[in-house]
UniProtKB/TrEMBL annotation:
<feature type="binding site">
    <location>
        <position position="121"/>
    </location>
    <ligand>
        <name>[4Fe-4S] cluster</name>
    </ligand>
</feature>
<feature type="binding site">
    <location>
        <position position="292"/>
    </location>
    <ligand>
        <name>isopentenyl diphosphate</name>
    </ligand>
</feature>
<feature type="binding site">
    <location>
        <position position="249"/>
    </location>
    <ligand>
        <name>dimethylallyl diphosphate</name>
    </ligand>
</feature>
<dbReference type="GO" id="GO:0051745">
    <property type="term" value="F:4-hydroxy-3-methylbut-2-enyl diphosphate reductase activity"/>
</dbReference>
<keyword id="KW-0479">Metal-binding</keyword>
<keyword id="KW-0408">Iron</keyword>
<feature type="binding site">
    <location>
        <position position="37"/>
    </location>
    <ligand>
        <name>[4Fe-4S] cluster</name>
    </ligand>
</feature>
<comment type="pathway">
    <text>Isoprenoid biosynthesis; dimethylallyl diphosphate biosynthesis; dimethylallyl diphosphate from (2E)-4-hydroxy-3-methylbutenyl diphosphate: step 1/1.</text>
</comment>
<comment type="pathway">
    <text>Isoprenoid biosynthesis; isopentenyl diphosphate biosynthesis via DXP pathway; isopentenyl diphosphate from 1-deoxy-D-xylulose 5-phosphate: step 6/6.</text>
</comment>
<feature type="binding site">
    <location>
        <position position="247"/>
    </location>
    <ligand>
        <name>isopentenyl diphosphate</name>
    </ligand>
</feature>
<feature type="binding site">
    <location>
        <position position="99"/>
    </location>
    <ligand>
        <name>isopentenyl diphosphate</name>
    </ligand>
</feature>
<feature type="compositionally biased region" description="Basic and acidic residues">
    <location>
        <begin position="1"/>
        <end position="11"/>
    </location>
</feature>
<feature type="binding site">
    <location>
        <position position="219"/>
    </location>
    <ligand>
        <name>[4Fe-4S] cluster</name>
    </ligand>
</feature>
<feature type="binding site">
    <location>
        <position position="249"/>
    </location>
    <ligand>
        <name>(2E)-4-hydroxy-3-methylbut-2-enyl diphosphate</name>
    </ligand>
</feature>
<keyword id="KW-0560">Oxidoreductase</keyword>
<feature type="region of interest" description="Disordered">
    <location>
        <begin position="1"/>
        <end position="24"/>
    </location>
</feature>
<keyword id="KW-0414">Isoprene biosynthesis</keyword>
């Protein structure tokens, strides 16, 4: 429901849809949901809890999530980010990032006598399990995703002899399978919903019996943020998405905004990266953030915009979001043991 605009983001009115703006009226359409998804929240808390439980240093293989601010904040608390497990001293704790890892990484950690905490997003784990299942049934698996992305590398590692990467609709004509009657598609969880379905449609044009996964692989948070940005973009002169350039879902938000009505769009890590030249002739600014972005960075952008006259904020919230995931089992076990010990003391 649309109410009278308020200058405080936390009390800003919700709008069922962006409304036309009067000439000269400067406002911000703030997309919701935005920012942290349940998988990112779980992964970040896992590192923080591990530091509290076991003390620094805690090693993390790859960036726990694709956001500079989050990584730098955790480094200050004692997390050490490494590229591979062989960089971790024997006997130390290593956390696997939210993007997931291939089975070979678990094996390497075991050989190095490392204690592991798996912070893989449960929705990514679901795709891993689907890959294993279809490989056991001897399907050719067409994995829709971006070459080199950590999530794609991890999923491909579950069934390397059965998986073929399809990096968008332009790749479809190059796909080759053993049996056109036994093909299934899976996808990276952070892709553009629209582009993924375009790729699926193209694949079905070649393989009419293409099997779909039992449930949608693109995560709820990716879909929700894209739904919200589409609604915002329809009435925005400029869309700003807060997120790092190596964040797939953040990049997709900018692309989605530009294909759904936004006249201009940019990805920024924080307010310092906004170019004031982008604001020339702009009245309505759409604002969202990627699934690995803490709200403090969005607040910084809102403050920056308010200082320049965009102090009227309307929330555009087409969907509600309430998903939560429990902490990795390794942490839950040790935290329960600690709590039990305190009760006995």
């Amino acid at each position: 429901m649309t109410g009278s605009p308020d200058r405080r983001p936390d009390d800003a009115p919700e709008a069922d849809a962006p409304q036309s703006t009067a000439p000269g009226r400067r406002r911000v359409l703030l997309a919701a949901p935005r920012g942290y998804c349940a998988g990112v929240d779980r992964a970040v808390i896992a590192v923080e809890k591990a530091l509290e439980q076991y003390g620094a240093p805690i090693y993390v293989r790859h960036e726990i999530v694709h956001n500079k601010y989050v990584v730098q904040t955790l480094e200050k608390k004692g997390a050490i980010f490494v590229e591979e497990t062989d960089e971790v001293p024997e006997g130390e704790i290593v956390i696997f990032s939210a993007h997931g890892v291939a089975p070979t990484v678990h094996q390497e950690a075991e050989r190095g006598k490392l204690a592991t905490i798996d912070a893989t997003c449960p929705l990514v784990t679901k795709v891993h399990k689907e890959a294993v299942r279809y490989a056991k049934e001897d399907y050719d698996i067409l994995l829709i995703g971006h070459d080199g992305h950590e999530e794609v590398i991890g999923t491909s590692g579950e069934a390397p002899d059965h998986i073929t990467l399809v990096d968008g609709p332009q790749d479809v004509e190059n796909v080759e399978v053993r049996d056109p009657e036994k093909v299934v598609w899976l996808s990276q969880t952070t892709l553009s919903v629209d582009e993924t379905m375009e790729t699926v449609d193209a694949l079905k044009g070649r393989y009419p019996n293409l099997l779909s996964p039992p449930s949608d692989d693109i995560c709820y948070a990716t879909q929700n943020r894209q739904t919200a940005i589409k609604q915002v973009a329809a009435d925005a002169d400029l869309v700003l998405v807060v997120g790092s350039k190596n964040s797939s879902n953040s990049v997709r938000l900018v692309e989605t905004a530009l294909t759904h009505g936004a006249k201009d769009g940019h990805l920024v890590d924080n307010a310092d990266e906004i170019d004031e030249a982008w604001l020339e002739g702009v009245e309505t600014i759409g604002l969202s953030s990627g699934a690995s972005v803490p709200e403090v960075l969005v607040d910084g952008v809102l403050e920056w915009l308010a200082q320049r006259g965009w102090d009227e904020v309307e929330i555009v919230k087409p969907v509600d979001e309430h998903m939560q995931f429990s902490l990795p089992k390794e942490l839950r076990r040790d935290l329960r043991a600690e709590a039990a010990e305190r009760l006995r003391a």
